[in-house]
Amino acid sequence: MTTELQPKSPTIKGPAEWFTGDVFFNAYYAGTEPSRTRLNLVRFTPGAHTAWHRHAVGQTLHVTEGYGYVQSRGEELIELRPGDTVYTPAGEWYWHGASADNFMCHLALWEAPGPDSDEPETVWGELLTPEEYPQA
């Protein structure tokens, strides 16, 4: 096996079923067995955020620029700034995104479930209500 440059991925606009506002991402890496690692760069415009969702094996976010939030269902809101890294455990419902008046960009790192699992990597839920998103 040799070291190889990964193919470039185009920037994709996130679907309205998963995101409120304009969100763009690049899928930088999707490992092949035995690796099940995934790595995306995600860019949120001001006020843009995910719907409630959960990951089968959890997810780590590392903020590279901007200002935003992450919140698990029923838990306190966490403010995110450049250099912050946050981990959400497997199966936990949460959302994340930019603040109302700032962009936010983060790297998203997660794993797909093992080959013997029929569980999806990500399960998407409902969009946040206006009351759930922090007001400026």
Automatic annotation (TrEMBL):
CDD domains xref list: cupin_HNL-like
Domain Cupin type-2: 41-101
Pfam families to which the protein is assigned, alphabetical: Cupin_2 (PF07883)
Region forming the signal peptide: none
InterPro entries: Cupin_2, HNL-like_cupin, RmlC-like_jellyroll, RmlC_Cupin_sf
Top-level lineage group: Bacteria
SUPFAM superfamilies in the record: RmlC-like cupins
PANTHER family: BLL4564 PROTEIN (PTHR43698:SF1), RIBD C-TERMINAL DOMAIN CONTAINING PROTEIN (PTHR43698)
Record's protein name: Cupin domain-containing protein
